[in-house]
Write a structure and sequence with these properties.
mainly alpha; 3 helices
Length: 141
Amino acid sequence: MMHKKRAIDIVEQVHENILNKLEQLNSGSEIDGKIFIEYLQEIASALVDTTDSLEKEESLKSDCFENEYKSIADTSLDSYANTSDKLHKFTREQQEIIDECQGDVTLINQKQISDKFAMIQTHMNDEVSRANGTIRLLNNR
């Protein structure tokens, strides 16, 4: 299929070529009909060749576009399948983690922490008292 603008351009070029040929052939008031008909046949043959060439070119463009479209569609489907698989895997792993953590809920035992800090403070006080005793002993000597 040819675009209308392209067809108009071709007709205008043919019209201009025919007028130029007529001026070349016009040595008088009459033109040899046989030469003019041969020229028109050459133009018709050229138009057929041009039209065939344009149709082949459009067909190739269409085929190329269709093939490229199919390639993009295949790539998109592969990407979607890959993403979908990863999402299902992530969802499954997330559910496994949630299931594992359901029974492990442990509250902070404030009494146990306080007892540990008290034990550390007692140990620290004992060590400071011993260090002070050593310092006094050394000063007295």
